[in-house]
Amino acid sequence: MGPVVGTPPDQAAPPHQRDVLMLKHLRSAARLLDAVRLSDQERRQLAALIRGSQERVEARLRGRLRPQITAALDEVGLVARNLPERVARKKACRGVARPGWRARLLDDG
User: Fold this and answer.
1) Does a structural domain hold residue 66?
2) In Å, how far are 67, 72, 73, 76, 98 from 89, measured between CA atoms?
């Protein structure tokens, strides 16, 4: 992806910016569905399309971020040494980029 419009040419777009912005706009569109003048059936169809797009973008973003998060944990020496630590590490790497991930990291379950 090329430089962002309005930024100097020597500054590249932040990594994953396209997916992050797309997810932001899809979430906004989902919140605004009730205000759109559509029949109930059309609204349900549009909601399903938006939800499907959101899920695909979230999955793509998680797939791209998970290896980077794992590498960052390795780089700083946060290596799992026993089963509870391995479970917690997997949970942390899996949960990022999902809505409410901070709450899930702190959840005992």
Assistant:
1) yes
2) 12, 12, 9, 13, 16
